[in-house]
Amino acid sequence: MGKLLRRITAACGTALAISATTLIAAPTAQAAEVDLKSSTWSSQSDSKVHVGFEQHDTTYRPEDVTIRIRKNGSEDVLSSLKLQNTDSCSVTYDCWDMHFSTGAVTLPDMGVYTLDVVVREGQQNELVDRDNGVFNYVLDPKLTVEPERPWVSFDTRTVQVSGSLVAKDPNTLAVKPFPGATVSSRQQFHGDPKRIRTDENGRFTARYDASHPTDMTLSYYIDSASEQVVLPLRQQALKIALTTQTGTISAPYGSDVPVRGTVKRIADDGREKPLEGAAVTIAGQQTVQTQRDGSFAGALSVTQKTTARVTASLDGWFTPLNQTFAEVAKPKNTTTFSPVSASVDKYRKVTFSGKLGVTEGSYPAGTTATITMEHSTDGRTWKSTGTFTAPYGSAFRQSPPQKATGSGHWRLHHTRSGVTSKPDKLGRKSTMVWNEDFTPEGVRKGATITAKGGLVQYSGSTWKPYAGQTVRIYFKPATRGGAWRQLGTVKTLSSGNFSRQFSAVQDGTWQVRYVDTASTHYADNGREDFIDVR
Fold this sequence. Notes:
eight-stranded mixed sheet; six-stranded mixed sheet; 2% helix; elongated
């Protein structure tokens, strides 16, 4: 009769409820396995353990729900329970986000179990969500956590935290370690929580990295138990050692006094260590970064009487440093240029040579100034052609990127003070290789190639023949890595024309160049011409 009753019960799809201490056979009716949005968990009320349920689905009612409890890894259902007080949800409402609970749960042993949610159990449209939640069959869980050190710093950003979890056995009320439980751990500002499993003694460990220079806040929780630990950030002190002049500084107006030194941090062990990447700001004017050895190099621009300070910082790992390093005396405009000479070569390159000094007073070693190279076509309106840094008391030699024209005025300008050098008028006569040609364009090997053309010079306001000058004929083979080489020279006639013949050897590019100039003329190159040798 019992077997027959069980068959009838299975055929009808009705769950057989027995005491929690007896295994309940899982129904044999085929059910659709789904992933429901609703969630389950273990909760405690009146010193009893219940299953909590939050509805996040609209396709069924809470009274349609059955909760099954299984041991992890086992198909045997240890308890099957319905939700209580489901009538609190009106039949006209979808029950979204409402909380429900089962009656008190009784299981054979304290431990961790898994929860299945069954909807419309035993019916043709039955749904099953396996392993929907975790059920901790314990009472009054208690967490204890202990970090290996009570702070974080630049040197010790990684911290290991050890902890333990104990709870009451619901059957005996004895307090025991809680093994196999999952403790959630969240580190502030670090996204998703960690899941930590307790060992057979209810203990656990976890490591955390302090990626941000702030206090490290760690939170732990499981069911009703929670614990939080805050590891304050221990900032390290900084130290700046200057290797350039300090104290009272006297320097000409508009000059740049060097400021160099090293930044070190006071490590956790009390030793001084170089700090790479620190931002060093000099008198609020310039910010530079320290190198790998902690060194930095910058400058103090002298424009007024002031108290000069230097600051150093790097994120929040360190206590920012702000210290006075010099008292700058009221500067005088005493900069002067020692005789500056300017010259231009045949390739139109302008070069300034000279020295920067002072008419009175002194300056710290290494003091420099920004110098502007200027050009004018009429000697009145000046235009910058580039800048360079000149040291006081040492000779300099600099060239602007701009090439010289036929003639023009050139000078140097101390950028901040306005002091200028005596202008130099530079210029040569322009020359031009013109009407040059290499013929024939296509030629057999061994045949004659004729290089011809003319050379003119700009005189007054017109181009005139330039006689008696040597022009050079260059050739570059078409082979890979081919380089220019001179094949010969020829003198220009009274008409400025020239002509010379060569024997065709291989494919390549030809060019006429006028480089043997007098100091009064500029050089010039003709166009490049490719000749195909068959």
